[in-house]
Specification:
mainly alpha; 2 domains; elongated; about 350 residues; 18 helices
Length: about 350
C-alpha cells in the first residue's frame, strides 16, 4: 500500500510526498517567489483530487507553526473549509475546481497562512509512569485550593477526586502563566483516565460531557471535562477584561468537539486554548491580531489564482487521485556519529593536514 502511495503523482507529475513537502515548505517561506510557488502547488494538489489532503496540511501547519501567535486563524480556517465543503458536495469535481471564486478562496487561505506570524507549538512535558495510580504522589504535589472554574464543572456524583485535584492544579498553573505545568496536568489526567479505563472498564468520570455523535464511552472522556473547565476560566478572564477572543475561543471548543477530530487534533487544540489563557493576558492588547496586514496586497495576489489553476487544469487528471493524507513528511534527523567514528574522522583530518604540509 505504501509503495502504491509513493508512486501517485499529481497533474504536473510531482510525486505525492514531494508535492506535499514543497507545499508546506513554501507556507513557511516569504516573498513573491514563495507565494507564486505556493499557489502553483495549491492548484496542482486540489485539481489532482487532493482537497482533503490540502485541508489537512493547512490545519497541521496552523497548529505546528502559528498557534497562539495568531489565534484567529483557527476560526478563519473552520469557516472557510466549511464553505468549501458545502460547495464541493454540490458540484462535479472539474466544475468545482474551475470556478474563479472558489480558486480565489483557496488562494486567500494559503496566502493568509503564509503571512501569519509564526510560533512553534510547545512540547508536551513527560509524565513519569510512577505518578499514575498513586494517591500518595498526587496528594504530595498539590499546591492549591479548589478553584471556582473547577467547582462549576466537577460533580461529586459522577467525577472522581483526581479530576478535582488535577483541574485545580491546571487552573492554578494557568493563573501563574505556567504553560508547561498546565500542560503537564492535562497530559497526566488524560493518561490517568486511560489507565483507569483499562484497569476497571470505566474512567475517572461517568458523566457524558462529549457531543451526542460519539459513543457513550467516548462521551465520558476527561478531555471534555478539561475543556469545560478551560471555558469557565475563559469566562472569568473575559469578565475581567484580561482576554477578548470570544469567537476564537469558541471556534477552538467547536474544533475539539468536531466529529472528525483525531486525538492529536484534540490535544493540539487544547494546547492552544491553554496558551491563550496563559499568554494573552500579558499582551498589551489582549485580543487577536488581524489576519491581514495589507488588504490590497492580498487582493492582488489572490487575483492571480485563476492563472495558476488554468495552467494545471489544462493537463489530464492523474489515473489515481491524491489520498486524504500522506505520512513521512518530516525530515529525519541525521544520526550522530559514535565516539569511535568521531575519533576516526579526527584522525583522517590530521592525516590530511599532515600530507598537505609535506606537499608544501
Amino acid at each position: 500500500m505504501d509503495e502504491e502511495i509513493q508512486e501517485i503523482t499529481s497533474r504536473r507529475g510531482y510525486l505525492l510526498k514531494d508535492l506535499a513537502r514543497s507545499f508546506v515548505q513554501n507556507l513557511g517561506d516569504a516573498g513573491p517567489m514563495a507565494s507564486g510557488k505556493l499557489l502553483h502547488y495549491t492548484a496542482d494538489m486540489i485539481t489532482s483530487g487532493g482537497l482533503l489532503l490540502w485541508e489537512k496540511l493547512c490545519w497541521e501547519y496552523a497548529y505546528e507553526h502559528i498557534g497562539v501567535a495568531s489565534p484567529r486563524i483557527f476560526h478563519y480556517l473552520a469557516r472557510k473549509f466549511r464553505e468549501l465543503k458545502e460547495k464541493s458536495v454540490k458540484l462535479a469535481f472539474e466544475s468545482f475546481c474551475s470556478i474563479p471564486e472558489i480558486q480565489q478562496q483557496m488562494a486567500e487561505i494559503v496566502l493568509i497562512l503564509q503571512g501569519c506570524p509564526k510560533k512553534s507549538k510547545p512540547k508536551w512535558p513527560s509524565v513519569p509512569t510512577d505518578t499514575h495510580d498513586n494517591d500518595n504522589w498526587l496528594r504530595s504535589v498539590l499546591r492549591t485550593t479548589d478553584k471556582v472554574a473547577v467547582k462549576k464543572v466537577w460533580q461529586r456524583n459522577g467525577d472522581l477526586e483526581p479530576l478535582l485535584h488535577a483541574g485545580n492544579e491546571m487552573v492554578y498553573a494557568i493563573t501563574e502563566g505556567a504553560t508547561e505545568r498546565a500542560l503537564f496536568w492535562v497530559k497526566w489526567l488524560l493518561e490517568e483516565d486511560s489507565l483507569t479505563k483499562k484497569k476497571f472498564g470505566s474512567g475517572l468520570t461517568t458523566l457524558e460531557r462529549g457531543p451526542p455523535h460519539l459513543k457513550p464511552v467516548q462521551r465520558t472522556s476527561v478531555g471534555y471535562y478539561l475543556i469545560a473547565v478551560l471555558a469557565e476560566v475563559y469566562k472569568e478572564y473575559a469578565e475581567k477584561g484580561m482576554v477578548r477572543m470570544h469567537e476564537e475561543f469558541q471556534a477552538l471548543l467547536d474544533l475539539y468537539r468536531a466529529a472528525d477530530a483525531s486525538q492529536k487534533r484534540k490535544t493540539d487544540t487544547m494546547s492552544v486554548m491553554i496558551q491563550i489563557l496563559t499568554d494573552v493576558p500579558k499582551w498589551k492588547v489582549p485580543a487577536a491580531p488581524s489576519l491581514v496586514q495589507d488588504q490590497k496586497v492580498l487582493e492582488r495576489a489572490v487575483g492571480q489564482a485563476e492563472a495558476f489553476f488554468r495552467e494545471v487544469l489544462a493537463l489530464p487528471l492523474p489515473s489515481k487521485l491524491l489520498p486524504a493524507k500522506v505520512t513521512g513528511l518530516k525530515q529525519k534527523k541525521a544520526k550522530e556519529p559514535s565516539k569511535e567514528e568521531q575519533l576516526q574522522q579526527r584522525l583522517e583530518l590530521i592525516n590530511q593536514a599532515t600530507m598537505s604540509f609535506y606537499k608544501m
